[in-house]
From TrEMBL:
Reactions catalysed, as given in the entry: aldehydo-D-ribose 5-phosphate = D-ribulose 5-phosphate
Family label: Belongs to the ribose 5-phosphate isomerase family.
Gene Ontology terms, MF aspect: ribose-5-phosphate isomerase activity
Pfam families: Rib_5-P_isom_A
Protein name: Ribose-5-phosphate isomerase A
SUPFAM superfamilies named among the record's database cross-references: D-ribose-5-phosphate isomerase (RpiA), lid domain, NagB/RpiA/CoA transferase-like
Gene Ontology biological-process annotations: D-ribose metabolic process; pentose-phosphate shunt, non-oxidative branch
E.C. no: 5.3.1.6
Subunit structure, interactors included: Homodimer.
Isomerase as UniProt keyword: yes
Length: 221
């Protein structure tokens, strides 16, 4: 919790007056969003696109002005959390189910910043099961095709019911153990009909805020 707050707040320094900002989802970027709310309260003029309904509610509570892709095409900065970050800044995302909008929004900026406590930093991705968003129709067949790539795909539940994403889809949590080539796996997954998007973010993050030896560090690509 202390690390999440420290890295989340540190990244907020990249939000400046006049910017269009992408706001991520989760318990780490929560602290970034709180800081951005303070900036707005102090008079900073920004507009934001949230990566989930949860973040949208939080931003509205903090009076952060929102926009949509109907009005903007490019974001000045996007700040988001991650479930795993490897040494090349490849990420696993989607533990909170927001991966599709997160990827759409991260794709719309040249400055994608990740906030991740030290537990998220790994040598290779894979220990955290990879979230894959799939269409509910024939999800079982899609799951079998994902399993042919070497994983065990488990449909996410919300209690006893299927978890439904903000986009009306299912999430499959796919255990691959070790992901040797995230880019290749991402391409293979997205070629399977029924896969809407996968939680691998490769060659997207430019800056990672994390904690090393008890101090916040900013790692740049
Ligand atoms: O879908 C959720 C997102 O990808 C989150 O950014 C990710 O799960 C990290 O969340 P947290 O900061 O709560 O660990």
């Amino acid at each position: 919790m202390i690390e999440k707050k420290a890295v989340g707040e540190a990244a907020a320094q990249y939000v400046k007056d006049g910017m269009v900002v992408g706001l991520g989802t989760g318990s780490t970027v929560y602290y970034t969003i709180q800081k951005v709310g303070e900036y707005v309260k102090e008079g900073m003029n920004i507009r934001a696109i949230p990566t989930s309904e949860e973040t949208k509610m939080l931003a509205l509570d903090l009076n952060i002005p929102l926009v949509t892709f109907a009005e903007v095409n490019h974001l000045d900065v996007v700040i988001d959390g991650a479930d795993e970050v490897d040494c090349h800044f490849a990420l696993t995302k989607g533990g909170g189910g927001a991966l599709l909008r997160e990827k759409l929004i991260a794709d719309a900026t040249d400055l994608f910043i990740v906030v991740a406590d030290s537990s998220k930093m790994v040598e290779k991705l894979g220990k955290f099961p990879l979230p894959v968003e799939v269409t509910p129709f024939s999800w079982e067949r899609t799951a079998r095709q994902i399993e042919e790539l070497g994983s065990i795909a488990t449909r996410r539940l919300n209690g006893t019911e299927p978890y439904i994403s903000d986009n009306g889809n299912y999430i499959l949590d796919c255990s691959f153990e070790v992901i040797e080539n995230p880019e290749e796996l991402s391409q293979k997954l997205n070629r399977i009909p029924g896969v809407v998007e996968n939680g691998l973010f490769v060659n997207m993050a430019k800056i990672v805020f994390t904690v090393e030896e008890g101090k916040v560090v900013r790692k740049m690509k």
